[in-house]
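Subject: sequence -> structure tokens, single chain

Hey, anyone have a minute? Need the predicted structure for the following. Not urgent.
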Amino acid sequence: MRCPEDRDRPPPGEYKRRVVSAAPQALASSLVLLPRRIGRLGEELASLLSPPRCTGCDEPLGRAALFCDGCEVALAEHDPGICPACEQPAGPKGLCRGCAGRLSPLAAVRCAFEHEGPLSEALHAFKYGDRHELAAPLAALWIEALRAVGLPDFLGSGSLLAPVPLHPARLASRGFDQAALLAHRLAQALGAEARPRLASRVRDTRPQVGLGREARSANVAGAFRATAGLARGRDVVLVDDVLTTGATLRAAAEALVEGGARRVFGLTLARAAP
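Reply:
Had a minute. Here:
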């Protein structure tokens, strides 16, 4: 006679069948996780073989950090009282009166740093040196700078963060979208929501570097399109790495407003002189 406890146990043959049938599932799960585990091991091995170096000056570091002490001190924070698009005194929207009209429908703009020195080197390595792992420390630096002067009213737990879209051809050549990585990290830290598909770049524009103010505006005019219905009635924060004249942010904001967004704000890590 089987004891009561044995009644809940499957017969020996049934138990063996269950184990065998579960084996392929366990193997599949292990194979899915294998690339991630190999990637982590590779990163750990690389850190042992190649000690961390300052992203600003390439000097060896005795700790895992973005910058050495000297480069960290040299970081130039952007004064929110100065218009980032023209360097005139800014109003409550973060822009001067003239730029607030020129960059409409952007409701407000905030930049954290000046695009110079160590930060310029770090951003160049991030975008063009295949250093996508810099997204996390750059985002942490960004949030620290914003909190030091007070987070803008449009940025909080209810914010909808959307990276300025990268054209598929540019994404294929670069291998990653730097604005999307930054927006994701910012959203994680702020308890906000990152929505990378609110808009798309429908025209592969030439790089803005080297173009004047008017040429920049013409270059990105009509280059973006909102995804139907996703931004309707919502406040959207456009995230990008660098603002120069604001032309790209404005063009993306126009597309989102046309797509039904209630208000659109601009947030960039750095501000470059036009």
